């Protein structure tokens, strides 16, 4: 069973305040979180954009509400023994909404959240905004004093329930309307001064900006930089991005792998659907044959439910214990056994 939330918040806080960098994979379902824990990671991130897609079938538009996000995070937090870090968009409104959001997240077992400095609802608020091109480039920034007030409300909310809950101030100033890198630095420093635990820099344009942003604040920080910004060369060619060692050397506290594992799984899902459409039952046959040839310890069912030695993992062990203890025997149930 999961540890108490207070233990989880302390674990997440330690990840940000201890030396070094930690990889935190993301997803949006309890299953994604269970796989992440089983693979040996120390924390799991619930993505707002993927929760839009998986839960309601929408693009990342601010259409999902606080209750839907909190309930989804609660389902995740109840099945893993690692802290859950969650997107909370803009706090779903003004300072009052931010206050309630943080308290609801804490009660749902979340260990920390990031809150961004754009208008609510996110995205398009007027029909004269330019067409979307890159991520959040139709969002409008809220004034710094408004965001500072929301952060202070969020901090007050967590201090009432669990002071170790991690408040992450995210700035989208680099790519939002009327933003820029100078605005990124100004906002990161203002949010750190307001008492945020961690600063998150969103959508920076280069590795040089990435390093400069991390140096600009005196509290833990990390960047969620779009791949096109640091993984493409001058002619558009795809090149390796900064290594984890480079990121750690630059002072980054976590590498937020928002969804590469989930995207890889979705791509495999899509390919299988197309293969079945084309080849029918033979596609299923070939997939099963390939699965049977895999080493047992690499196959997904054993990875999730059993160790390589065949022992049940906690996910299924508890179920088996309850069944054996409380379900009636065949005799008690009056089941007729075959001769």
Could you describe the 3D structure shown?
By secondary structure, the protein is of the alpha/beta class. It has two domains: 254 residues, TIM Barrel; 63 residues, no CATH class. 48% of the residues lie in helices and 11% in strands. The protein contains 15 helices and eight strands. An eight-stranded parallel β-sheet has the order 7-6-5-4-3-2-1-8. The protein is globular. 37% of the residues are buried.
Task: Please supply descriptive tags for the structure shown above.
eight-stranded parallel sheet; TIM Barrel; 8 strands; 339 residues; 15 helices; 2 domains; globular; alpha/beta
* Approximate helicity band: 40-55%
Number of domains: 2
CATH superfamily of the largest domain: Phosphoenolpyruvate-binding domains
What is the second-level CATH architecture of the largest domain? Alpha-Beta Barrel
N-to-C order of helices and strands: HEHEHHEHEHEHEHEHHEHHHHH
Spans of 5+ residues with little confidence (pLDDT < 50)? none
Which overall shape is indicated by the principal axes computed on the Cα atoms? globular
Number of strands: 8
Structure annotation, total helices: 15
Helices and strands: which structural class? alpha/beta
Strand order of the largest sheet: 7-6-5-4-3-2-1-8
Terminal CA distance: 41 Å
What is the name of the CATH topology of the largest domain?
A: TIM Barrel
Radius of gyration, CA atoms, in whole angstroms: 22 Å
CATH class of the largest domain: Alpha Beta
Binned strand content: 5-15%
Give average pLDDT, whole number. Answer: 89
């Amino acid at each position: 069973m999961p540890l108490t939330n207070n233990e989880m918040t302390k674990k997440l806080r330690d990840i940000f305040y201890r030396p070094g960098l930690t990889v935190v994979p993301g997803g949006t379902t309890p299953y994604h979180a269970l796989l992440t824990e089983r693979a040996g990671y120390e924390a799991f991130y619930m993505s707002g954009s993927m929760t839009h897609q998986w839960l309601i079938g929408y693009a990342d538009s601010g259409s999902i509400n606080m209750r839907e996000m909190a309930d989804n995070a609660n389902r995740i937090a109840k099945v893993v023994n690692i802290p859950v870090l969650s997107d909370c968009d803009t706090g779903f409104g003004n300072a009052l909404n931010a206050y309630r959001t943080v308290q609801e997240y804490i009660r749902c077992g979340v260990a920390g959240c990031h809150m961004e400095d754009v208008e609510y609802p996110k995205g398009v608020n007027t029909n004269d905004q330019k067409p979307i091109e890159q991520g959040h480039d139709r969002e409008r920034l809220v004034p710094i004093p408004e965001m500072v007030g929301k952060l202070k409300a969020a901090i007050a909310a967590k201090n009432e329930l669990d002071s170790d809950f991690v408040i992450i101030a995210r700035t989208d100033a680099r790519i939002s309307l009327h933003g820029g890198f100078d605005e990124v630095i100004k906002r990161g420093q203002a949010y750190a001064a307001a008492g945020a635990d961690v600063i998150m820099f969103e959508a920076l344009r280069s590795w040089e900006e990435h390093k400069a942003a991390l140096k600009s604040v005196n509290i833990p920080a990390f960047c969620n930089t779009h791949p096109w910004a640091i993984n493409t060369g001058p002619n558009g060619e795809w090149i390796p991005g900064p290594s984890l060692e480079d990121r750690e050397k630059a002072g980054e506290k976590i590498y937020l792998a928002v969804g590469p594992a989930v995207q890889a799984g979705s791509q495999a899902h899509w390919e299988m659907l197309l293969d079945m459409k084309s080849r029918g039952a033979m596609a299923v046959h070939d997939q099963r044959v390939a699965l049977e040839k895999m080493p047992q310890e690499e196959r997904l069912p054993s990875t999730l439910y059993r160790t390589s030695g065949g022992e049940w993992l906690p996910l299924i062990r508890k179920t088996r214990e309850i069944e054996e203890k409380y379900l009636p025997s065949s005799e008690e149930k009056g089941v007729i056994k075959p001769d």
